[in-house]
Design goal:
- The structure is a homodimer.
- Chain A is mostly helical.
- Chain A has a two-stranded antiparallel sheet.
- At the A-B interface, helix 4, helix 6 and helix 7 of A face helix 4, helix 6 and helix 7 of B.
Chain lengths: 326, 326
């Protein structure tokens, strides 16, 4: 385990445990099957990044209401709901190293359990008694659904532009992380400057995280990833490493890359050839740099807060966004 | 058209038109495809029962804030979201006389557009600035998802009891109509007695509506229904007419009925034979009576309100629940 990961895990241990407990206690399910399916996705080793970010954001704002772990479950339930629906949409077979829920329980149950988790997150949001929080949560869900649909309509579009990619990942990933951080500030009854700073921190962190995630599909391996590498490409999803390389490639290389991309049954040899192209045309490097810019922006947003353990951890998480291997 | 239907349509005309306008104006979509799919389900001749009930409930409480049509879209978006997901879950091919959205656009788009509509309804709920309304909406969604899953797990269960059937239809249908009526009272800032009375009215109306709906599968025809008759049975869904007849039938007849039910490819001849059994063992009559009891309860709940046009229409709608043919 890398030093930074170890340091973060150590810093967030009490929050992490409080979140695990809250997730189990507040599922509020009345049917065994829902409990099982929700548990399948919820308790399979998630990082709890989103609830942790909400708790840390609350703490950096001086929150002391004692309900942060409870409220933070909003973001894990919401995240789990979208994973259930997205895996079904993408046809993904593995999730966190386990068979995806729709393969184990069927599409019907996966759809309905996703709906339930979405509703559960909203019920908990309503308990904040803060209509701005609820507005944020509803807005996240609207954006995520539209981001996923947008991505779906752009499948196999070899002409996808960087700007459109950015808009897709903003909606499908960054708004949720932005919302988690913003909610931490909102429940602390912080002023606009703190709310906006944490929202911006979350947005930039979310963009960096998704780019890092998209990179992993080309630089990691199936075992550490817990899902198949090359999956994005097999699903016809063009991400920044590929978009940039396609834009920069010679005509001959571009045609070769397009052939591999459109043939979703590519061999390992072909996939490696494509990866070489991503390096040759600096698709990997460019994406790393873009992600890095966002982590720098994220950290800058924290400058208005005085030093604290929570601030240090939020900075570490931004650095870790780029360093992670899975 | 029956006299009562004509009378209701005439009474609610201004509300109906305001709701249609609000549904178009507040979809708040940024992608053409989402707009098209949402429109496919939203603008295919729905009765707008749920938003109408919310508007009438607000009016019976003396609401004059002028935002009832806007807020009432919550309940049509929510309803449309569940139709999209349920049709997918049930594999239903027809909806309101048109091919179901998942057949036209695929499961992926149907799931995600459902998510979007769900989120949209919550965004509008958050604009009420009323956390009790939001709690109600989130609770509806939780209940509906669990009700659908409950029904799914009871498929082809020939031993399904009336009580369990009642619990399933409460969750999958009645809570939404209850919530629409309750929200009408809540946005009017009415006291507990009005809020509870309208919630109870909605609950009982919802129960009666679902029972009437389940009856239509045996007493209507595909053309007036806009979807295939006998569909419930083909999906393995046992509803009250069947549950009651199975409980009352002689052993010989019960075995015959069970054979038809478990053979989902039943012929028209077999389906008619089953319908004869439902009549012979009073499954139809019993269900009609149960539904009628609920409409009586619903109407009684309105006694605390003074006479008004809205009250008269709410009473008419309760009567119509039983009289409708589609």
């Amino acid at each position: 385990m890398s030093h930074i990961k170890y340091k973060i895990l150590n810093q967030v241990k009490p929050d992490f445990q409080a979140i695990e407990t809250a997730l189990k206690e507040n599922l509020g399910v009345h049917l065994d099957l829902v409990s099982e399916v929700a548990g399948h996705i919820l308790f399979s080793g998630g990082k709890r990044l989103r609830p942790l970010l909400m708790c840390l954001s609350a703490r950096i704002c001086g929150y002391s209401g004692g309900r942060e772990a409870f409220f933070s479950t909003i973001f894990e339930y919401l995240h789990a709901a979208t994973l259930l629906h997205d895996d079904l949409v993408d046809g993904g077979r593995l999730r966190r190293g386990k068979p995806a829920a729709h393969f184990v329980y069927g599409n019907e149950i996966a759809v309905l359990t996703g709906d339930f988790l979405l509703a559960r997150s909203l019920s908990i949001a309503s308990e904040t008694q803060n209509t701005e929080v609820i507005r944020v949560i509803a807005g996240i869900t609207e954006n995520m659904a539209q981001g996923e649909i947008h991505q779906l309509t752009q499948k196999e579009n070899l002409k996808l532009k960087e700007q459109e990619y950015m808009e897709i990942i903003r909606r499908k990933t960054a708004v949720l992380i932005e919302g988690a951080c913003k909610t931490g500030a909102l429940i602390s009854k912080s002023g606009d400057s703190a709310v906006n700073a944490l929202a911006e921190y979350g947005f930039n962190l979310g963009m960096a995280f998704q780019m890092a995630d998209d990179l992993l599909d080309y630089i990691s391996d199936t075992k550490s990833l817990g899902k198949a590498v090359g999956a994005d490409l097999r699903e016809g999803k063009l991400t920044l490493p590929v978009i940039h390389a396609l834009e920069s490639a010679s005509e001959q290389d571009r045609i070769l890359m397009e052939k591999i991309i459109l043939n979703k049954d590519f061999s390992e040899y072909e996939f490696n050839m494509l990866k070489n192209m991503l390096n040759k045309y600096k698709g990997i490097e460019y994406t790393k740099n873009k992600a890095k810019e966002h982590t720098i922006c994220a950290k800058q947003m924290l400058s208005i807060f005085k030093d604290s353990a929570a601030k240090e951890t939020l900075i570490d998480i931004a650095d870790y966004a780029l360093a992670r291997k899975s």
